[in-house]
């Protein structure tokens, strides 16, 4: 009972570790995508803002130039006529680029015009678009600044991505560590429960309890008992095939989860192999000891998806095996008893 309480406590602590390990850490790929989208949106907002600034400066400059043209036209009409010579004078003295007089039909794209009072004639010229000119002059500087900005962003993104990958790797390592028994390196109760829930339909479960382990602890100390548990773990690990799960449930209890497909004969052979492997002498310091194991076996094909019933059946079969003399293995569905070694 004490062993089961210890296993339950270890499982609870493992659950706390996994809960901490499963914090909502950023996914590296998602973080990279979100960052790129944010940069693109920031870049678009800067471009749009710059475009509006250029248009605003252009409109202000054209408005000011139009007011100056009206003053210049009034001066010209006071002293002369709206002819080619007058247009040249306006272009020279009042800085109206390409100033000329003509009707509305002769107006060219990009020009602005004001009407000569009392006639259909218009004064037309090409205004300076200061915002556009300024943007063109500053284009090389803007491109350099943009390149430096993007390079800085790329460095920051790279570091964030690497940090996120490191956090993800540590989270996975923490999850794996929480599911492992620190003493033997096997899965612990938490890891066993996780693997049991992930196993396909029809797994088979062997529950093991070491015979004579308490005597080793009492006679040689807990250090020797720990050494023995490590040796047992190595021997059980050597009998596992791909897809199997070997776990230390608590104390000197182990679980051996065999993935499907399997059969009763194969499980009986596996139980016998486990009995033989664990009955081989173990040297602890200057002393050589021999232990064994009682094994309870439950077949998943008899319990379907009910993993709790599978575990309960294997546990009940283990207790029946422990009640028998010697080392034995017992199937949960049968009173038949077989020698484990």
TrEMBL record:
Pfam family, one: GGDEF
Classification via PANTHER family: DIGUANYLATE CYCLASE DGCT-RELATED (PTHR46663)
Domain (GGDEF) ranges: 201-334
Name of the molecule in the record: GGDEF domain-containing protein
Keyword tags: Membrane, Transmembrane, Transmembrane helix
CDD domains per record: GGDEF
Chain segments annotated as transmembrane: 31-55, 141-161
Lineage: superkingdom: Bacteria
């Amino acid at each position: 009972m004490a062993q089961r309480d210890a296993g339950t406590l270890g499982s609870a602590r493992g659950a706390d570790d996994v809960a901490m390990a499963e914090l909502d850490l950023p996914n590296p790929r998602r973080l990279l995508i979100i960052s790129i989208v944010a940069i693109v949106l920031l870049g678009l907002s800067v471009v749009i803002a710059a475009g509006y600034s250029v248009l605003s400066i252009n409109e202000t400059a054209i408005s000011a130039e139009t007011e100056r043209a009206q003053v210049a036209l009034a001066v010209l009409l006071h002293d002369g006529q709206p002819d080619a010579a007058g247009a040249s004078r306006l272009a020279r003295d009042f800085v109206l680029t390409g100033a000329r007089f003509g009707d509305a039909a002769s107006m060219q794209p990009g020009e602005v015009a004001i009407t000569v009072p009392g006639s259909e004639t218009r004064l037309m010229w090409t205004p300076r678009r200061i915002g556009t000119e300024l943007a063109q002059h500053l284009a090389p500087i803007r491109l350099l600044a943009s390149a430096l900005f993007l390079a800085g962003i790329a460095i920051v993104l790279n570091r964030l991505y690497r940090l996120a990958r490191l956090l993800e790797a540590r989270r996975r390592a923490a999850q794996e560590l929480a599911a492992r028994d620190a003493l033997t390196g096997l899965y612990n109760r938490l890891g066993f429960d996780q693997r049991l829930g992930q196993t396909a339909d029809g797994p088979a479960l062997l529950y093991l309890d070491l015979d004579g382990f308490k005597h080793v602890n009492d006679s040689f100390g807990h250090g020797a008992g720990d050494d023995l548990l490590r040796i047992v773990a190595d021997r059980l690990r050597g009998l596992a095939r791909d897809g199997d799960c070997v776990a230390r449930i608590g104390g000197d209890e182990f679980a051996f989860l065999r993935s499907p497909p399997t059969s009763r004969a194969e499980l009986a052979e596996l139980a016998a192999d486990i009995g033989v492997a664990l009955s081989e002498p173990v040297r602890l310091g200057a002393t050589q000891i021999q232990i064994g194991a009682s094994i309870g076996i439950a077949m998943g094909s008899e319990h379907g998806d009910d993993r709790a019933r599978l575990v309960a059946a294997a546990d009940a079969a283990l207790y029946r095996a422990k009640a028998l003399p010697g080392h034995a293995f017992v199937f949960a569905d049968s009173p038949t008893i077989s020698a484990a070694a």
